[in-house]
Design goal:
By secondary structure, the protein is α+β, with helices and mostly antiparallel strands. The chain has 4 helices and 4 strands, in the order H-H-E-E-H-H-E-E.
């Protein structure tokens, strides 16, 4: 993603602190990425669920902002009220292990879905 587009759609300071990056932003779709490192793991050596859900929250919040418009979001911010995650398997850091997650608007009713995985 170009620096100018990333500057127009800044990530939260927390997402930046864990190394999350905005890869793509368009109306109804946002993709985030993160290079999985040892400090992202839990005591069992797999990616901490908070890392995954942080990227989910950021991507889905970005989708809402992309549909509502940045000026509207600035005037009337939104917040996640409820979010669910089901973990199928643990991810372990490996050299050059980059994880991606995306959020997309799914229909006129404003439904959202998240997904992701390795590139």
């Amino acid at each position: 993603m170009s620096e100018s587009v990333a500057a127009e759609h800044p990530s939260s300071p927390f997402v930046e602190a864990i190394g999350g990056r905005l890869e793509e932003w368009r109306e109804g779709y946002v993709r985030m990425a993160l290079t999985l490192e040892p400090h992202h793991t839990n005591p069992n050596g797999v990616m901490h669920g908070g890392v995954v859900t942080t990227l989910m929250d950021e991507a889905l919040g970005g989708v809402i902002a992309s549909v509502r418009g940045l000026e509207t979001v600035s005037a009337a911010p939104h917040a996640t009220v409820e979010m669910n995650a089901s973990f199928l398997a643990g991810a372990r850091p490996r050299r050059s292990d980059r994880r991606r997650g995306a959020g997309a608007a799914t229909g006129p009713a404003g439904g959202l879905r998240g997904g992701g995985g390795a590139p």
